[in-house]
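Students often ask why we bother predicting the structure of a whole assembly rather than each chain alone. The short answer is interfaces. A chain on its own may look different once its partners are present, and contacts between molecules only exist in the joint model. In this exercise we take two input lines together and write out one structure for the complete complex. Read the inputs first and try to guess which parts will touch.
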Amino acid sequence: EDKVVQSPLSLVVHEGDTVTLNCSYEVTNFRSLLWYKQEKKAPTFLFMLTSSGIEKKSGRLSSILDKKELFSILNITATQTGDSAVYLCAVLIQGAQKLVFGQGTRLTINP
Amino acid sequence: EADIYQTPRYLVIGTGKKITLECSQTMGHDKMYWYQQDPGMELHLIHYSYGVNSTEKGDLSSESTVSRIRTEHFPLTLESARPSHTSQYLCASSLLGTDTQYFGPGTRLTVL
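Now the answer. The structure tokens for the assembled complex follow.
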């Protein structure tokens, strides 16, 4: 059974801290891994990763994929209260073209 | 920014009612999806479509049905709502040959 596991499930830090969110996966036929940010509404797309070792970066957020060890991390530096959200990791299955989601990490940034 | 819309955003109805959740996108995406998400839990795929007149069931068994008569429109229907259908329903779309799915704002359904 295809599975995506995120850790931690919940994280509370102070503004300015750096956080690392983890995503590991066990799937039959990996195509790509996607990160989304979900506040009170729709998940919004952050990154898509297909190749190992190539960092994707957007402002204070960055992500990298390790296809040998089957995991990805999402880093957020100099966190702000607006970064508070649930961060979702999902793996796209080749052929079936479906996303398998992890449970999400609820990140809370305190001022 | 994706242009994908869902209505209603919130719905509270009684058991046994028939409901249709609307989803429309203006991006010309071929593929559309419906996910169900309970509070604090994963999103689960319940239906998807590769194009007009194409519909498939997802991983999570659902008593809902979908139709795809027009590219931009992918409504989801529950013939007889029950309290177990209480959940958030998220619609998404993507372009054929690409991996990124763009999500609508969701419909939070409560069945009393």
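Check your guess against this: The CA atoms of residues 97 and 108 of chain A lie 32 Å apart.
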